[in-house]
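Pilot study result, target chain (93 residues):
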Amino acid sequence: MFSIGEKMYCVANLEPGVGPSKFAFKCAPERFLALVEMEGIIPAPYMARNHWVSVTDENCLRQAEFKNHIRDSYQLVLDKLPKKTQARFRRKP
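Predicted structure:
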């Protein structure tokens, strides 16, 4: 589990053969429908209403696409945190 400010933005199953999901992450509502239409990505159980997807086949996306989706998930969660908490995690120029 990866989190920021005690809020999850990505969950990764690193145990081979345990459960169907490899990764789960939050996505923007407009991306949710497009992602779940792809082979190897399903609505995340219990979290789909919050626009989380679950990746069942890691070959469904290229590595760069995974990185972008996880970075976007991080940003979505960060943007919902209280301003004071956000300031602690924002990068300094």
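One observation from the pilot: The first helix runs from residue 29 to 36. A full batch analysis is planned for the follow-on phase.
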